[in-house]
Amino acid sequence: MFSLLLAVIYLAFISLGLPDSLLGSVWPTIYQEFNVPVSYAGAIFMIISAGTIFSSLQSDRLTKLLGTGKVTAFSVLMTAVALWGFSISSSYWMLVLWAIPYGLGAGSVDASLNNYVALNYKSHHMSWLHCMWGVGASIGPYIMSFALLNGQTWNMGYRYISLIQVVLTIIIMLSLPLWKKRPVIDDVDGVQESENKKDKALTLKEIVNIPGAKQVMLMFFCYCALEQTTGLWASSYLVLQHGFDLEISASYASLFFIGITVGRAVSGFITMKLNDKQMIYLGQVIILIGIILMCLPFGHQVALVGLVTIGLGCAPIYPCIIHSTPTNFGADKSQAVIGVQMASAYVGNLLMPPLFGIIANHISVRLFPVYLLLILIVMVVMHIKLNKSVSKDMLIN
Is the separation of the CB atoms in 373 and 291 below 8 Å? Predict the structure, then answer.
């Protein structure tokens, strides 16, 4: 029964990824059709991120009221409706309107599912489940590219994804009886025990004052800023800087998400040999190599290899930061810290991709690799400070 439920959760993570890469992959076509500046993708992305921040902060309340299964089903359905709205949009401002339910649907399911998996399943499932997100994010641009290459508009690409989300909603709704009894997994007993305690919830100020909390919040901010900036602007960078055709740029941009997907599949096995700290450092080094490759003046193929390499480097960082939270902060504080980590992640999504849009519009899109490098440097510095802060706190205690 629990294996069947796990399969449903894997499908839910695929549904999370399906629409995430669509806007970036097709924006070179949309902004020309609607005759708006290239930077206007940032505004849509900000609205989606703002909705995601709001709904993720409400996820705990919604989950206690409805349960994880119902929250997941409702959120995927809301996303399906929003994507259908994108498919019938004939102006930029319609996209802005439909971005609101899109963001609200994405936040609740993301926070609720991550919490459920962290409490109930073994650690390697975290990497593999986020690999399923990458499967969805990789498939999305190919579906869009299929529509464009077959003489259809970008609207039809969104419609195809919307219909897939409706099917996933039905599957999740049929699985609701499976969510009633929670599995007990031996390597997460400490987290489950802390969840069952009736301790008073920590305030935001108390959480931020925990040693290492500020550093891990900035790490999450930087990671998601780097990932989402790459996902949103890679296609435009390939078109404007390297001269790729509009019709195939969407499928090439998906190589970044393929890198994440493959990397997370492999990371699930590597985590059996390396600890979370080592996995995060490994990912950061691989990202650096990818950025360097994108900067080298050796033509299209090297730029594409660099894009895939950045995706491979991103792969272990997000799930390993989440998984290391109980170790770094204690099982009794992990849920509170994970909450502010997710909020920091969405703030990074909200601010940094639109900021690069402004830079690309007013300076040059060629600064794309430099922008990613600066974010990476801050993330590495925060990771080093986090490890020092946590080690010092353990010595004191």
Answer: yes
Torsion of CA 220, 225, 230, 233, to 10 degrees: 160
Q: How confident is the model at residue 250 (pLDDT cuts 50, 70, 90)?
A: low
Residues 206-226: tens digit of each pLDDT:
878 888 889 999 999 999 999
Find the helix or strand (DSSP H, E) in which 295 lies.
helix 276-295
Reported as a single tens digit per residue, the pLDDT across 107-134 is 767 767 777 777 677 767 788 888 887 7
Long-range contacts of 73-76 (CB under 8 A, 24+ apart): 73/169, 73/172, 73/173, 73/176, 74/105, 74/108, 75/105, 75/106, 75/107, 75/108, 75/109, 75/112, 76/12, 76/15, 76/105, 76/109, 76/165, 76/168, 76/169, 76/172
Report yes or no: 61 and 268 within 8 Å, Cβ to Cβ: no
At residue 297's C-alpha, the angle toward residues 294 and 300, to 5°, is 65
In angstroms, the CA 162 to CA 284 distance is 34
The model's pLDDT over 173-198, given as tens digits with 9 standing for 90+, comes to: 998 888 876 554 444 444 444 444 44
Q: What is the DSSP letter of 332?
A: H
Q: Is 330 left (phi over 0), alpha (psi -120 to 50) or beta?
A: left
Four-CA torsion 40, 42, 43, 47, nearest 10 degrees: 150
Q: Please say if the pLDDT value at position 205 is more than 50.
A: yes
Supply 247's token pair: 């019709």
Instruction: Single out the residue of 92, 91, 105, 116 nearest to residue 19, CA to CA.
Output: 105
> Taking Cα atoms as reference points, which of 64, 103, 392 lies closest to residue 201?
64
C-alpha span between 68 and 115 (Å, rounded): 9
Amino acid, res. 48: I
CA distance 386 to 324: 12
